[in-house]
Amino acid sequence: MGRCRLSNRMIEYIKKYNLPLLARFILGAVFIYASLDKIADPVSFSNDIDNYHISPIAINNLVALILPWVELIIGLSLITGVFLDGASILTILLLAFFIFIITQAYMRGISLHCGCFKTGADPSLGDLRQEMLWRIFEDILFLGLAIIVYFRDSFGDIK
Question: Is residue 5 domain-resident?
Answer without folding.
Answer: no
